[in-house]
Amino acid sequence: MRGDIPGSIRGSVSEAYPHLMFEGFTSRLGERVCKVLKHLFPPRDPITSKTKLSNRVVVFKNIEDVIEVRHYVYVRTAHDSVELSEVGPRMSMKLFEIRSGTLENKDGHVEWHLNQFTRTSRKKDYL
């Protein structure tokens, strides 16, 4: 949580809504995972003359069922060029289970779970 980060009260943590980018989520399960990840971030406000666009980008990239997460800030250097700099923590996530309901509801319906010991002739990519 933002409040748990030391120094966040002084304003060192950005509160701008990030642009979300998803790459490699082509299957039906991948589209479901995209929807879940999108709801982790609050919705963006409509662009008006008073609100400024955010310069934060969060990228979720699917590489052989491992979700790589990168956090960038961009600066427009010229009319047609942009400079990216990585600012956030890097993460790698592996999907374990999708369960309907809330975290408190332990007996919710399991939509999908990872089978560790499935015998297949080749590795299957689910996302």
TrEMBL record:
InterPro entries on file: Brix, IMP4/RPF1
Domain Brix stretches: 1-104
Name under which the protein is recorded: U3 small nucleolar ribonucleoprotein protein IMP4
